[in-house]
Design brief:
It is a single chain. The protein is α/β, with parallel strands linked by helices and about 375 residues long. Helix content is about 60%, strand content about 10%. The chain has 18 helices and eight strands. The protein has helices spanning about 5-10, 20-25, 30-35, 45-55, 60-70, 75-90, 95-100, 115-130, 145-155, 170-185, 205-215, 220-225, 230-245, 250-255, 280, 295-305, 315-330, 335-365; strands at about 15, 40, 105-110, 135-140, 160-165, 195-200, 260-265, 290-295. Strand 7, helix 15 (about 280) and strand 8 form a beta-alpha-beta unit. The longest helix has about 35 residues, at about 335-365. The radius of gyration is 20 Å and the shape is globular. The mean pLDDT is about 95.
């Protein structure tokens, strides 16, 4: 076991793995990460599933069975993904039983529904029934159409992982949607203590987009701000989270048994090789957060990561200064966030299409 990872957990950070595949489940890889690397949750997304199915033969047996009964491509993808997530939930069940907070496995709604509230709600309910595990989380994007779907899904007693959050402004809307959903869930007779939610705030992609625009400015002053936006953005998000926890509205929900919707740092693998490979872990340690990491980042932190305690609380003013300087340098910050959300939905939609195409080709091959 890693002393560095143990120190990270002791600082109040939950470690989730940003990857799920059948090979991780069948080889014992995921079980080993839970046992040895303090992993207490798993997230998946269309990109992860597309790569898993395309790059291995682990799904061949199930694909042959699906082909034999002439399953549609859509049904085949549904069965493949829900099988992996269901098995992941079973593997994480003991972790979930310890406190009812961690031990979660996330499954995303079809990203093509990101701008359709009613269809997202229906898909979330279908996935919840298909997996049929209490530690499942349904991932819903934080688009304009996704916000009411988040509220409605929580109101039905379904756990929600809100994904593709890039701006603090949108994050505040997400927290409002969460509390509205929990209030409705209580009115609907659900046990609030049993409903879990996280808000996935994307990190490294913010630096990628801002740094690209900084480089295009060709300004020495602007270049000093490279690699500062993502961490500052997340710190402002954490300050907003603390503000909500101090409200009477949240205190009423907490008194009724509700657990906080924890901030989850997503996209924490470093994309710029000039930055530390543990940058988005070391610089975002705070109590009560989740950091979902690709295995490469997890192993890097276990090897040489640094824990300096809570480095986020009380840093909002400094973080706000970063964005004041970015604006002054000519970076259109609101456009950055709009671009990232649009591209995030487009990327997941492309990955979903790739997954459908891959499965279609394999089904045709096996039928042939």
């Amino acid at each position: 076991m890693s002393d560095r990872l143990a120190a990270l957990v002791a600082a109040g950070v939950s470690i989730w793995l940003d990857d799920l595949s059948r090979r991780r489940l069948t080889t014992g890889n995921l079980a080993g990460l839970v046992r040895d690397k303090y992993v207490t949750g798993v997230t998946s997304n269309p990109t992860i599933f597309a790569a898993a199915v395309a790059q291995s033969e682990d799904y061949d047996e199930q694909l042959r069975e699906l082909a034999a009964r002439n399953a549609s491509v859509e049904d085949a993808v549904r069965e493949i993904t829900t099988t992996d997530v269901r098995d992941g939930c079973d593997l994480m069940r003991d972790v979930w039983h310890r406190d009812g907070v961690d031990g979660r496995v996330s499954l995303e709604v079809d990203p093509r529904l990101a701008h359709d509230t009613e269809a997202t709600c229906a898909e979330a309910a279908d996935l919840w029934k298909a997996v049929d595990r209490p530690n499942l989380m349904i991932k819903i994007p934080a688009t304009d159409a996704g916000l009411p779907a988040i509220t409605s899904t929580l109101a039905d007693g379904i756990n929600v992982n809100v994904t593709l959050i890039f701006s603090v402004e949108r994050y505040r809307h997400v927290m409002d949607a969460f509390m509205a959903g929990m209030e409705q869930a209580g009115a609907n007779g659900h046990d609030l203590a049993g409903i879990g939610s996280v808000a996935s705030f994307f990190v490294s992609r913010v630096d990628t987009e801002v740094d690209r625009r900084i480089d295009a400015l060709n300004s020495s002053e602007a270049r000093q701000l490279r690699g500062t936006a993502a961490v500052a953005n997340a710190k402002l998000a954490y300050a907003a989270y603390e503000e909500v926890l101090a409200t009477s509205r949240w205190r009423s929900l907490a008194a009724a048994g509700a657990k906080p919707q924890r901030p989850l740092w997503a996209s924490t693998g470093t994309k710029d090789k000039s930055y530390s490979d543990t940058k988005y872990v070391t610089e975002l340690i705070a109590p009560g957060v989740v950091n979902t990491m690709p295995e490469k980042t997890l192993e890097a932190f276990a090897d040489h990561g640094e824990v300096h305690g809570d480095v986020v609380t009380g840093t909002a003013d400094q973080a706000a200064t970063v964005f004041e300087r970015l604006q002054a340098a000519g970076i259109d910050v609101p456009d950055v966030f709009e671009t990232l959300e649009r591209e995030g939905v487009e990327k997941f939609t492309r990955s979903w299409t790739e997954l459908l195409d891959t499965v279609a080709e394999q089904l045709d091959s096996m039928r042939g």
